[in-house]
Amino acid sequence: MWGMIATWRMAVEGLTEGANTLEKGGSAEEAIVKAISEVEDFPYYKSVGYGGLPNEEMEVELDAAYMNGTTLDFGAVGAVKDFKNPIKIARRLSVEKANNFLVGVGAEKFAHKEGFERKTMLTDRAKIHYKNRVHKLNQQENELTPYSGHDTVGMVALDQQGLMTAGTSTSGLFMKKPGRVGDSPVIGSGLYVDSEIGGATATGLGEDLMKGMVSYEIVSFMREGFSPQEACEKAVAKLDQKLKERRGKAGDLSVVAMDKKGNYGVASNIEGFSFAVVTETKAPKVYIVDKIKEGKCHYEKATQEWLENYMATRTAPLEEEWKK
Ligand code: GLY
Fold it and tell me: Where is the active site (predicted)?
């Protein structure tokens, strides 16, 4: 059996590429790096890689992580600027004996020394988003606050040899403080994988996801015998409830998981979370998830109309409201 699951609709093209690798007997490591790089390279996804939205100083700072579920190798970068594929740097760091998680200038020095490709990651489109946002906030005499979409791409892959891997990549919150790092590169929070059990990855408000170590929690539930679907539902319901009880509210929490047999699960505390999945017996498809209700999460295949509307919205021309 082989398979791959990922957060959000934006992952499906990469996931399809990854599936080609897995189908031919390629490794889960190669598949996940290829799949996430594809998402990082697509300029219209405004929360990952090239075209990702900038921080409050109009600089794109990227977080990414990679984990091998057999060796437990883990590598990550935080707040890294102007490198084409942060996921590749994270994978490279995962095989270092120490210094596996580097941030900011240190991560950039490492990437430069290792010959990773540099690229200006701020696009003209992202600049328009930024200037429109500042303009709007100035008009409302408001403070800069983070944009409410945090669409990290997170993936879990299983290959025919039984190796499982997980990876994440994100530009984090729009208008974040320089140096802010979310859950995505944090082992146990943004991702966790153990080839003897399964893997999980998360997207949503990093500050809240980290409070529950949600990916590790899901893998722990699977270890106890819960299915990936039950494990995802339990982890999201538990963290959502705890945050509401202790803090009055919970940020967006969405997760996907796959076990070592290719069974998968998903849960979310918001409406409209989407995910993509492919297995040996199922072609790559996108699904839309309903908000968790009484501990259960339902999902349905995305309609053609939804899929077309998604791409049309992402690529539509942007008005320069700040010039008006
Ligand atoms: N979950 C992505 C972030 O908070 O940065």
Answer: 152
Q: Is 181 annotated as a binding residue?
A: yes
Question: pLDDT tens digit string along 250-295?
Answer: 999 999 999 999 999 999 999 999 999 999 999 999 999 999 999 9
What span, in angstroms and rounded, lies between the C-alpha atoms of 223 and 75? 23
Is residue 120 annotated as part of the catalytic site, yes or no? no
Rounded CA-CA distance 125/146 in Å is 18
Q: Is 204 annotated as a binding residue?
A: yes
Please determine, for residue 149, whether its predicted confidence score (pLDDT) is greater than 80.
Answer: no
pLDDT tens by residue, 19-46: 999 999 999 999 999 999 999 999 999 8
Q: CA triplet 123, 180, 237: central angle to 5 degrees? A: 105
Task: Read off the pTM.
Answer: 0.96
Question: Which atom of ligand 1 lies closest to the CA of 202?
Answer: 1
Q: Ligand 1 pocket: which residues have CB below 6 Å?
A: 150, 152, 170, 172-173, 182-184, 203-206
